[in-house]
Amino acid sequence: MAISLSVVVLLAVILVVLIRSGSLKAGPAIVAVLFGFFLASSGMAPSIQRFLDSIAATINQINF
């Protein structure tokens, strides 16, 4: 849960920066947010979550 919350916050910050810089208009941003919302409630959500969890675990195993 902590990983997904931090990813949501990071993506929200990126979205705000893109909108404020003019790189992304409000209309496409709303479409992107709605797409993510509906994708999260689809049947693909568990597969996407497992994929993101495996990426997070791989990054966590890297020793600097």
Give the gist of this structure.
By secondary structure, the protein is an all-alpha fold.
Percent of sequence in beta strands: under 5%
Based on DSSP secondary structure assignment, what is the total number of beta strands? 0
- Oligomeric form of this entry? single chain
Separate helix tally? 3
Gyration radius, in Å: 14 Å
Number of domains: 1
* Main sheet: strands, sense, barrel: none
Tell me the distance between the termini.
25 Å
Helix content: over 70%
Order of helices and strands: HHH
Keywords:
81% helix; 3 helices; flat; mainly alpha; 64 residues; single chain
What's the layout of helices and strands?
Elements: H1 2-21, H2 26-40, H3 45-61
Notes on the protein architecture:
This protein has 64 residues and is an all-alpha fold. It has one domain (2-61). Helix content is 81%, strand content 0%. It contains three helices and no strands. The chain has helices at residues 2-21, 26-40, 45-61. The radius of gyration is 14 Å and the shape is flat.
